[in-house]
Amino acid sequence: MLNRILDKIAILREHEVYYQQVHGVKYIMKGLDYHFKNYMHLLSEDDDIHWFHEVVAYLNRIGQIYYFLKSDFIAAQDSEVPALKRVIPFRMKYSAHRSIDAPRRDDLPLMMDISIPNMYYTKPSVINPDVNSKAIALPKQNSDGEREPYALFIDDEHRSILTEIDSALLRKISELGI
C-alpha cells in the first residue's frame, strides 16, 4: 500500500505550484511507515516505554498527513478520512501540546498527565496475533464524572488510514485529469 501511495505522490509532484507541499509528503509517508514498523517490532519486547515513543512519533506523522489532506490542494472532506478523524484527537493530546503546560478551556484535569504512558490497554494484535498490541488512551469523563477512556490501537487503524490516504490522492489525481 505504501508504494501505491508513493506512486500517486510522484504523479502529483509534477504540479510545480504544489511541488514542495507534495514532495515533502513522500517523506512523511516513509516516516509513518518507519514508526509503524518499529511499533510492531517493539510489541514483542518487554520494555514498555519504547513502543510509546513510536506511537507518539507515528501520531506526529499522522498530523502532518492529515493537514496535507485537508489543505486547499487535496481538500479532503471529513467523510473521506474517518479513521484519520478518529486518530487526530490522540495526536493533539499526545504529540501537539501537553495540557499541563498549556491548558485549554476544554481540557479536563485528568487529561493533563497523559504525556506519559500512564493509561494503556493490551489485546492480541490484529496484524500479528502472537504479540499483544498496546493502545494509548484518551481519558474522558461522562456526565457522572466517571472516566470513560477511548483507546487507540494503531495496528487496528493503520490499514484504514493508508486506504484513506490512497483514496484521497486518487481522487485528486482524477480531478486534475492525470
Structure commentary:
The structure is a single chain. With about 180 residues, the chain is mainly α. The chain has five helices and three strands, in the order H-H-H-H-E-E-E-H. The chain has helices spanning about 1-15, 20-40, 50-70, 80-95, 155-175, and strands spanning about 120-125, 130-140, 150. A hairpin with a 7-residue loop joins strand 1 and strand 2. The protein is globular, with a radius of gyration of 17 Å.
Structure keywords:
178 residues; mainly alpha; three-stranded antiparallel sheet; globular
* Protein structure class: mainly alpha
Strand percentage, roughly?
Answer: 5-15%
**Rg result:** 17 Å
The number of helical elements comes to 5
Overall mean confidence score, pLDDT:
83
Give the topology string: H per helix, E per strand: HHHHEEEH
Sequence of strands across the biggest β-sheet: 1-2-3
Unreliable stretches: none
Question: How far apart lie the N and C ends?
Answer: 20 Å
> What does the main sheet amount to?
3 strands, antiparallel
The general outline is globular
Give the beta-strand count: 3
Q: Helical residue percent?
A: 40-55%
